[in-house]
Structures are given as C-alpha cells and as structure tokens.
Amino acid sequence: MHPPDAAHMARAVELAALGRGRTSPNPVVGCVVLDASGQVAGEGFHAKAGGPHAEIAALAAAGPRARGGTAYVTLEPCAHTGRTGPCAGALIEAGLARVVYAVPDPNPRAAGGAARLRSHGLAVESGLLAEAAEAVNREWLTFARLGRPHVTWKYAATLDGRSAAADGTSQWITSPEARADVHRLRAASDAVVAGIGTVLADDPRLTARPATPLDGTPPLRVVVDSSAKTPPAARVLDGEAPTLLAVARDADTAALPGGTDLVRLPRAEGGLDLPALLHELARREIVTVFLEGGATLAGSFLRQGLIDRVVAYLAPAFLGAGAAALGEAGVATIAEAHRWSFTDCTPLGPDLRITAEPAAHRPATPHHPKER
User: Fold this and answer.
1) 362 pLDDT higher than 80
2) Full-prediction pTM beyond 0.70?
3) 278 by DSSP, 3-state: which?
4) Per-residue model confidence (pLDDT) at position 60
5) 55 in active site
6) How many C-beta neighbours within 10 Å does residue 109 have?
7) Averaged pLDDT for residues 266-288
8) Reduced to 3 states, what is the DSSP secondary structure of residue 182?
9) Quick one: which of 109, 144, 209, 367 is 20 to 30 A from 165 by CA?
10) Is 18 exposed, middle or buried (0-12, 13-18, 19+ CB in 10 A)?
11) How far, in Å, CA of 110 to CA of 104, rounded?
12) Integer distance in angstroms from the first to the last C-alpha of the chain?
C-alpha cells in the first residue's frame, strides 16, 4: 500500500455513509478516483437503488482523468449486470491502473470483480480500512451474509429498567428529544416490528413522524400476531403506511379487514418462528428492521441471537415496580448472560441514548442474497 492510501479510503468510507437509509436493498458504497499523478479526479457514492453505483458516479466525475489512475472503493466492485452494468467492467474501460477495495462482496452473484480486474492487467489490493468499511455497511452485510435483515432493538426505560409503571402507563418515559430521535431511526429503517401485546395495549401508529424516510418510502409496519388478534380499527391498519401481519399458519383471520397483507408462519415456543419471519422479510428485500415493543418479543429475538444492535433510551427516573424492558431471554445464571459492547453514548435532552452490539459476532451462514 502507498502512504496516502488510507486517507483516500477513509474518504471513500465517508462518501459511503451519505447513502445510508437510501439504498435498500443495495449496499452503501463510496469511491474515490485519482488521476495518474495521484490527484483526486472524482468522487461518488451509491445514492439509491437502481441509480449509478459509486464507481460509476466517481468515474463520471473524473472523466478522462481516470486513465492510468487509482480507484478506492469500500466494497469489491461488482462483476455482474443487474439494474445497472458491472462496475468492474466500467473501471477497466476507463483505463484505471489500480483498484483498492476494502471488503469483498459476499454475494456470489456479484462477486468476482477483483478477479476480472486482475485478468485485465489492473493491480488490485484489498482489506484496507476493512473494519471501517464493514461498520458503515453493516446492515447490508448482515443481510447479504445471513440471509435476513439487520435487526436493531430499541427500547425506552427508567434507570431501574422499567418500561411502564405499575398501572401500565408508559407515556412518556423519555423526553421529546429522545422520541424525535426514535422517529429518525424509524425513518432510516425498512421495517418497524412490534408484537400484538404492544398493539393491543398502546395502539401505536409505528410510523416515522415527522421525519420523511430518506428514500421516500415509509417503513413497512410488521405486527407479530400469532393468533390474528389485531383489531380491524387498530392504527397499524389505517393505511398511512404499508402493514404486514405475521400470523400462525392455523390462525383464524376471518375478523381481519379484507386485503390485509398476511404472512402465515410456523408456530414456535412462545409465538411464531422468528427466523422464518426474518427470512420472509429478506425475501421482500427488507434489509433493516427496527424492533419496538414489547418485552416478550424482544426477549424471544435476543434468546435466539437475532438482534444485531440495541439502542436504549434511558430516562433519569425510577419506578421501582412495573413492566421490565426485556422479557425472558434464556438466561438462568450469570454465566449465561448476553454480553454486549457499548459503541456509543449520547445525551438527548435529559435522557441518555446508549448503543451496543454483541461482544462476539456470530459466524455468518452462507446465503445467496439479492443481486445489487
């Protein structure tokens, strides 16, 4: 690697981040193109699915200056034709001499770009700032590697871990600033998931308000409702945003309004087969899931290793009694505790937002995802 390489890849990672929340079901990717003298000639990022990939945008900005130069890309350039042409071919045609990428493409239908570049005489190097490039694209990489969406569990609680008072009241534990942040995260997600208990208790809308989704598409509202108890007048069925009800295969759905979007899933201990639900969402090209309410559903997700990130909003208050934020999660002794690592801690008004991820990431299961 050359000394300036890290700085150019760091810039590519910054560019990739500009596409977050806009590209599903595609990855976020950034690219920087240098001319033959080592000067920046063009930059680009993938802005939306179906639009130009990062490499194409950067090459367009560079024009003829790309010939003999170097491209820095956060993800291995694709080698297939999807809604757009292969980026590896575009880099070859532009006359690049060298390509540096951070993370191999895990999609076997899109991978192979590095080999194609090498076969045409380009120098190819990989792995530079791979950790940073993984972090900015973590949601899509989870989707591509595991064949399921990346799941963020959000909860709000008091300092003693209560999500509601003894009488069941829970509005509002946290501040307007924290609630606005929740809506921002909803708007950046492909789907918002809640259990039937939350729907019956709170009648939530599960929409992003007043934030407008970055890609213009409201998140899919998903209710995990094994026995099809969602009331016809529930606000999740108000048509404000698309809604999917996940019910058991043997559930009686006669009381639901006609035209309700349903997916029938196998029953499992405590409810529905959650891996089957996530695979169904992946089939619908849902890359990111925002899991909200309630404690029992969150416990089931955590127990099965299906949560990739936790965003907790902690209010400086104590209740001493009332519902806990998390239900039974398969832990009988301290040695079985789910161990996580803090990744962020940010004050929001009087509250604190804490973000955490699993301390040890689970090995990826091979899967063939949708093509870019």
Assistant:
1) no
2) yes
3) helix
4) 97
5) yes
6) 15
7) 94
8) helix
9) 209
10) middle
11) 10
12) 28
pLDDT tens digit sequence for 108-160: 776 789 999 999 999 999 999 999 999 999 999 999 999 999 999 999 999 99
In the block, which residue shows the tokens 């698309």? 242
At 297, list the tokens: 């559903």
What tokens were used for 193?
């998931």
Separation CA 81–CA 372 (nearest Å)? 9
Mean pLDDT of 86-102: 95
Q: What mean pLDDT is predicted for residues 227-245?
A: 93
Residue 294, preceding peptide bond in cis (omega within 30° of 0): yes
Residue 274 one-letter amino acid: L
3-state helix, strand, coil in the chain (%, to 5): 25, 25, 50
List, in sequence order, the alpha helices (H) in 38-136: 54-62, 87-93, 113-119, 130-136
Catalytic residue among 55, 76, 139, 280: 55
Does residue 310 sit in helix, strand or coil? strand
Phi and psi angles of residue 296, each rounded to the nearest 5 degrees, phi first:
-65, -45
User: String of b and e for 317-344 (b: at least 16 CB within 10 Å)?
Assistant: eebeebbebbbebeeeeeeeeeebeeee
Residues in the chain: 372
φ and ψ at residue 67, rounded to 5 degrees: -60, 125
